[in-house]
Amino acid sequence: MSEAVSALAGATSKGFVDVTEVGLVGMVTVRGDLGDAEFGKAMSAALGVEVPEARRMLVTEGGKLLWMSPDEVLFVCAHAQAEARISTLSEALDGHHHLVANVSDARAVFEVSGTGSAVREALAKLTPADMRPSHLPVGEVRRTRLAQVPAAIWFDDENRATIVCFRSVAGYVFGLLAQASKPGSELGHF
Amino acid sequence: MLILTCPYCGVACDETELSAGGEAHLTRHGPGSSDGEFEDYLFMRENPRGVHFERWRHVYGCGKWFHAARSTATLEVFGTYSAQVLIPPDDIRAAVSAKVPGWQWRDLT
Ligand SMILES: [Zn+2]
User: Fold this and answer.
1) B101: which residues sit within 8 A by CB, 6+ positions away?
2) B62 in contact with A at a CB cutoff of 8 Å?
3) What digits encode the pLDDT tens for the residues B25-74?
4) CATH number of A142's domain
C-alpha cells in the first residue's frame, strides 16, 4: 500500500495564534438513524462511548465521537486505527440501515492555539458562527464555513481549537488562518 | 442579516450558511395534471410584502432541509419548523398571528 501523507505535511504558522496542520488523523463517518435506540446501542457498544447529544463531542479511550447531524456522527481516532474501527462498526451495525466510511484522507485537520481569547478572535474573522464561549463552549462542535469553504470547529480547551476541512481546500484554509492571525491584526473584541 | 435556527441541529445559522429553497408548501403537479396546474406548479409564486413561508437548507451544517416563517418586510423570523409537513404547524401560525394579526398567505390565515 502507498504511504499515507497529510495535505500540508505539518505546515505551521506563527502569529497572535499558532496554526499547525496536525498531520494524519483517522476519521470514520457513521450514518444511520441516531434516534433509533437499537442503532445507538449497537454503535455505542462498538465504540465504547454513548451517542452524543446534538452538537456535542464525547471523548473516549482512543478517540472522540462527534455529533454531525441527526443521522451522522464522526469518530476521530489515530489514522492507523480507522480501518480496525470500521470492521468493528460494520459488524456491530449489521442488520441496521447504515453507512460506515473511512474519510481520513478526504480531510485536513488544523490545530489553532493561543492565549486568552486569541483563538476565538482569529476564528471570528473567518466564520459567521458565534465564537463566544457561551455559544461555542468546549465540547461542542460547530459546522460552519471559513470564508468560502465548509469547516467544522471545536474547542479542545479554551486555548486550543481544532478545525476540520476538506483536503482539497487545505491550502486555502491554512492561508486564511495564517492571514487572520497576523501580529497586529488583533481586534480585541472578545 | 437573516439568522434562522435550524430545527434539526439547533444551530443559529447565518443566512450565508444556508441555501435558499424558495417558496414552501408547493403542491407538485406532474404527469396527468392539467396545463394550468402544471404552469402554476412550475412558475406561479407568491411575492408578498410581509408574512412568507420558505424552504431553506442548512448546507454548511447538518445538511437538512427545513421550513421558515418570516416577514419579507422586516426580516423578523416567526419560527422554523420541520420539512416533513404540508402546511405550517399550529404553533408557527400562532406565532405569526401574535405579531401580524389578520395575516393571509395563499389560503392560510
Ligand atoms: Zn442544521
Assistant:
1) none
2) yes
3) 999 999 999 999 999 999 999 999 999 999 999 999 999 999 999 999 99
4) 3.30.1360.120
Domain ranges of chain B: 34-109
Query: For the whole model, what pTM was predicted?
Result: 0.93
Say how many domains are in chain A: 2
CA of B8 to the centre of ligand 1 (A): 5
What are the CA-CA distances from residue A159 to residues A96, A112, B92 (Å)?
Answer: 40, 8, 41
A130 touches chain B (CB under 8 A): yes
A98, three cell numbers: 447504515
And the C-alpha cell for A95?
442488520
Q: Tell me which architecture the domain covering B34-109 has in CATH.
A: 2-Layer Sandwich (3.30)
Type of residue found at B51: V
Q: Can you tell me the ipTM of this complex?
A: 0.91
Residues A128, B12: C-beta atoms closer than 8 Å: no
Q: How many CB atoms lie within 10 A of CB A1?
A: 3
**Claim to verify: residue A30 and residue A101 sit in the same structural domain:** yes
